[in-house]
Amino acid sequence: MFSGLVAGTGEITKIIKQGKTIELMVRPQIADFLTNVKHGDSIAVNGTCLTVVSIIDNQFSTTLMPQTFEKTTFKNLQAGSLVNLERSLQVGSRLEGHIVTGHVDEVSQVIERKANENAIELKFNLPQHLVGQIIAQGSIAINGVSLTVMDTSSKWFTVGLIPHTQFITNLDRLAVGDEVNLETDILGKYVVTNLSGGRK
């Protein structure tokens, strides 16, 4: 489980496809990020919960199944791409942001970007099966970053990036047409599912 408060970014140094699995090598750009990280630990990479397989020369490797690779933005990334990184929460630590599971719901696309003083406002298309799970002033994870929804309709939603978020994540690099990983609020999922009688 994660909070959506990413520690910073990392650089993908290698993507290797071996049969039906994909190996990813990532070099964190955050000092001491891998301190005490061991084989089997969970790290959110662009909002996707992945398991550490090995740690070599300040890099960690992880393995993606084809379904994860195709369902997320990993299919668009290459060596040199920057990804957001967050280590899993520890029991007893402060819970800021919101509860993020690391299970990506859908890929969305940037349809508008504009500056608003020192903030950046981004508009994304809203996948139809997620309508009702995204509400104004609610929480959403975009590439693993916990953000507050500014406004929404049946076809789109908007968020704002404060300077700190622009500096510490890869979201400031987004342009119109770019794709991102979305995860809606887990509490909202339970509410929608129960109100619909268990139907998705």
TrEMBL record:
It catalyses: 2 6,7-dimethyl-8-(1-D-ribityl)lumazine + H(+) = 5-amino-6-(D-ribitylamino)uracil + riboflavin. CDD domains: Riboflavin_synthase_like. Keywords: Repeat, Riboflavin biosynthesis, Transferase. It is an enzyme of class 2 (transferase). SUPFAM superfamilies: Riboflavin synthase domain-like. GO terms for biological process: riboflavin biosynthetic process. Lumazine-binding repeats lie at residues 1-98, 99-195. It holds the Pfam family Lum_binding. GO terms for molecular function: riboflavin synthase activity. The keyword Repeat applies. Residues 1-98, 99-195 form the Lumazine-binding domain. PROSITE patterns: LUMAZINE_BIND (PS51177). It comes from the Bacteria. PANTHER family: RIBOFLAVIN SYNTHASE (PTHR21098:SF12), RIBOFLAVIN SYNTHASE ALPHA CHAIN (PTHR21098). Homotrimer. This is Riboflavin synthase.
